[in-house]
Automatic annotation (TrEMBL), chain B:
This is biotin carboxylase. The keyword Nucleotide-binding applies. Its EC number is 6.3.4.14. It comes from the Bacteria. Keywords: ATP-binding, Biotin, Ligase, Nucleotide-binding. The lineage of its organism: Bacteria, Bacillati, Actinomycetota, Actinomycetes, Pseudonocardiales. It comes from Saccharothrix syringae (Nocardiopsis syringae). Signal peptide: none annotated. Residues 1-448 form the Biotin carboxylation domain. This protein is a component of the acetyl coenzyme A carboxylase complex; first, biotin carboxylase catalyzes the carboxylation of the carrier protein and then the transcarboxylase transfers the carboxyl group to form malonyl-CoA. GO terms for molecular function: ATP binding; biotin carboxylase activity; metal ion binding. The keyword Membrane does not apply. Residues 120-317 form the ATP-grasp domain. It catalyses: N(6)-biotinyl-L-lysyl-[protein] + hydrogencarbonate + ATP = N(6)-carboxybiotinyl-L-lysyl-[protein] + ADP + phosphate + H(+). It holds the Pfam family Biotin_carb_N.
């Protein structure tokens, strides 16, 4: 587990805000926006993020055994090695019924062995009578279909397993 | 009665609703975000559905995801808890359109009472006393300004769509009115998507007293007495108690009667709360109606012996209220303290983290409503309230001693975790709180005495 700590004297930064906006919540909202910008600069999604208002403290914690990463607000961010992907999955964007094909009897959007590219539609989740397209968020080779046609899924349910990158390369 | 209820909430209230459902033989479905996988209600409920990622907007506030989860799991009704979608008329309507019972008032009633100016209008016609101010949202800054001048300062500018202590601004003199008005309009637009504001007199040393009501679909309505919620910080309640100390019983009785009249006037169904300000002269003024179960509802449960969530569910299922006004006989004194993971030394900044140690108090007449447990990681994504500590006693001095004992027993520790328990004990020990003469200014007074006046101004 590695941990980076960012501290800054936030008084000047936020003094005007607390007066103009709705007190503490506005401060937190602004802190959160800063954190979103900060997260855009770190290479991997952290396991844990702690935000504290007042004297601003942002703690970022990554869930791997790599070197400690310290990101200093004013300085250039250190670039840690991205962790090796454990197995990649395309997951459901919401709760609903998953369909592999555009309509009953039609061939599925993708089958095992197919290559997918980012943005390619791989299925449909029907929620509240809406047909929500499921799109691949990365490229890969479909190793296994994990959810059956017509199966009830929830947010994050694994729909397809992608083969590891070394098998899809080339 | 329902066979299965979906609980559209998280934290302690989700667990609290699930517990009553289990006592009633109703199966439960918990919904949760990715951040709440380890939440206590997820393992407690009969089923759980992950409805979205951590931001509430994409999970607990996603109407389609919540309703779809209810339909997928075969739930017949949805309990919204407090916060999130609990006072969203659109959510109540979508539930109804999909054949789900929303455990709360009809969407039309939520919409009417959610608009603070509409609520003031209907309650004024039902005979409830209002603070001097506007009955309608004010069209222009100059119109608002001249009304404020008529009322006399200080005044408070409030967002028509506001609530939960958000979107209001106190103005002490005419010179600061223009700027405060502009800012409140901007905040109202940003927070609620509705820029309308209204103006009323501000009572700096008022007490905040509310009346719990309960209504069925058959025209029966009762009130369950009052709660004093004067101990607030930035309009967020910290301590609630009943009975309101030092308030004449006939005044409380009158507030109860007008609340029932107001509830009948709008066709209210379910549990609701009428909020009032009580001035130093003993006059009371209607503020707003909360159309949901409230955080502090157990205070009323302890003195009446009623399970309010059970009553909500029964009424939603169409049952008649099993009690008349004369059956409601509050006994003794109940106090609730909200324990937040916040650091009072750092201006109450949120201080969540993993709870290495979590040992709630026990002993006679102590109730703790919490979703915390040892090892639980309090997510930073949501509200900072971790537990509610409640005590009951035959009289107020005993209740205060019991609460102090309970708070002192509460062990919560973990890296970076801070709580408000020690601060709450200082509030309870304050001279004016002990005397029961405190107003909504008490938290500022405690902070002043601790750190000097500069701390309270923050």
């Amino acid at each position: 587990m590695t941990q980076g700590v960012i501290t800054d004297n936030g008084h000047e930064l936020f003094n005007g805000l607390t007066e103009r906006l709705d007190g503490h919540r506005a401060l937190l909202e602004e802190t959160r926006r800063s954190v979103v910008r900060l997260l855009a600069d770190v290479p991997t999604a952290p396991k844990r993020l702690r935000v504290q208002a007042g004297d601003v403290v942002v703690e970022v914690e990554w869930d791997d055994a790599g070197q400690p990463v310290t990101v200093v607000a004013a300085g250039a961010p250190a670039a840690p090695e991205p962790p090796a992907p454990e197995g990649e999955y395309l997951t459901s964007p919401t709760v609903g019924v998953f369909y592999r094909a555009p309509q009953p009897g039609a061939p599925p959007f993708v089958a095992e062995g197919d290559r997918v590219r980012p943005g390619q539609q791989v299925g449909i989740v029907e929620a509240m009578k809406l047909m929500i397209p499921v799109e691949a968020d990365r490229a890969g080779l479909v190793a296994r279909a994990l959810a059956a046609d017509g199966e009830t899924v929830e947010y994050g349910t694994r729909l397809f397993e992608l083969a590891p990158p070394d098998r899809t390369a080339g | 009665m329902f066979d299965k209820v979906l609980i559209a909430n998280r934290g302690e209230i989700a667990l609290r609703v699930a517990r009553t459902c289990r006592e009633m033989g109703i199966r439960t479905v918990a919904v949760h975000s990715t951040d709440d996988r380890d939440s206590a209600v997820v393992s407690y409920a009969d089923e759980s559905v992950q409805i979205g990622p951590a931001p509430a907007r994409k999970s607990y506030l996603d109407i389609a995801a919540v309703v779809e989860a209810a339909l997928r799991t075969g739930a017949e009704a949805v309990h919204p808890g407090y916060g999130f979608l609990s006072e969203d008329p659109d959510f109540a309507e979508v539930c109804r359109d999909n054949g789900l019972v929303f455990i709360g008032p009809p969407p039309e009633v939520i919409a009417q009472l959610g608009d603070k100016t509409a609520a003031r209008g209907v309650m004024a016609r039902a005979g409830l006393p209002l603070l001097p101010g506007s009955l309608d949202p004010l069209g222009s800054a100059s119109e608002a300004r001249s009304l404020a001048d008529d009322i006399g300062y200080p005044v408070i500018i409030k967002a028509a769509a506001g609530g939960g202590g958000r979107g209001m601004r106190v103005v002490h003199d005419a010179a600061e009115f223009g700027r405060a008005h502009r800012e409140t309009v901007a905040v109202a637009q940003a927070l609620f998507g509705d820029p309308r504001v209204y103006v009323e007199r501000y009572l700096a040393t008022a007490r905040h007293v509310e009346i719990q009501v309960l209504c069925d679909r058959h025209g029966n309505a009762v009130h369950l007495g009052e709660r004093d919620c004067s101990t607030q910080r930035r309009h967020q309640k910290l301590v609630e108690e009943t009975p309101a100390p030092g308030l004449p019983r006939e005044l409380v009785e009158r507030m109860g009667e007008v609340s029932v009249a107001g509830a009948r006037a709008v066709g209210y169904v379910g549990a609701g709360t009428f909020e009032f300000l009580v001035g130093p002269d003993g006059r009371f003024y209607f503020m707003e109606v909360n159309t949901r179960i409230q955080v502090e509802h157990p205070v009323t449960e302890l003195v009446t012996g009623l399970d309010l969530v059970r009553a909500q569910i029964e009424v939603a299922a169409g049952a008649e209220l099993g009690l008349r006004q004369q059956d409601v006989v509050p006994r003794g004194v109940a106090i609730e303290c909200r324990v937040n993971v916040e650091d009072p030394e750092r201006d109450f900044a949120p201080a969540p983290g993993r709870l290495v140690e979590f040992s709630p108090p026990g002993g006679p007449f102590v109730r703790v409503d919490t979703h915390g447990y040892p090892g639980y990681r309090v997510p930073a994504s949501y509200d900072s309230m971790l537990a509610k500590v409640l005590v009951w006693a035959p009289d107020r001095p005993t209740a205060l001693a019991r609460m102090d004992r309970a708070l002192a027993e509460f062990r919560i520790a973990g890296p970076g975790v801070r709580t408000t328990t020690a601060f709450l004990r200082r509030v309870l020990a304050h001279e004016s709180f002990r005397a029961g003469t405190h107003s909504t200014a008490i938290v500022g007074q405690v902070l002043d005495e601790q750190h000097g006046p500069h701390r309270a101004a923050g």
